Amino acid sequence: MDCEKITPYTDDSRLKHEQVRDMFDSIAPAYDRMNRLMTFGLDRLWTRRATACATSSSPRAILDVATGTADIALRLSKYAPDARITGIDLSDGMLSIGRRKVEEAGLSDRIVLERADCLDLPFADDTFDAVTVAYGVRNFDNLAAGYAEMLRVLRPGGTITVIELATPTSRIIRPLYKFYAGHIIPLLGRMMSRDVSAYSYLPKSIAAVPQREAMTALMEQVGFADCQWRAFTFGVCCLYTATKPH
Fold it and tell me: Is the pTM of this model over 0.90?
């Protein structure tokens, strides 16, 4: 799959997940600010919609994959006040910031953040009622294997909610988006982050990840049911949902 060949550092021979881990360690201090800036704050709207969708069935145990700085985990705690939330990520730098935010929110008893690999989740089969992934699946070494692991730890009838950036299909919006993603975002990244490569990798990884029907088809191949998608904001972001069959 093309997205699995796109790596942050083109002259680096290490596996993708090792490069991604180091990239996020590097950009962790600027990550939240960059998200707000480069999406004009729309990332908050998208994540609100995703978390509302993920918690619509009142899950009691939620796994947030690629939790990063715990933005999604914290929002999930508001939408599902009775749920216990486990967030996992490869990056110690991102997790350190996330743990501080969780502690400041007084939610350490409900949100636990752990360092773990999405391709080898350290949880038993049928553990969680819901799984969420925000802006993370395009960073997987093997997207199908990642989905298979998330399916494994979901309970029958459990749901997965994935939100990911996408390339607009409109002939009017698409060239504007490509210019912004290919030139403005890397420029902002160089200004705010120590890692010059990170925000050049971003538009390349977005362009390469399966999108819309291709993404739901992959989810179906892995074993998910009721796979659906919908686009937000001229198609620059997509929400994917599915369930684990009984």
Answer: yes
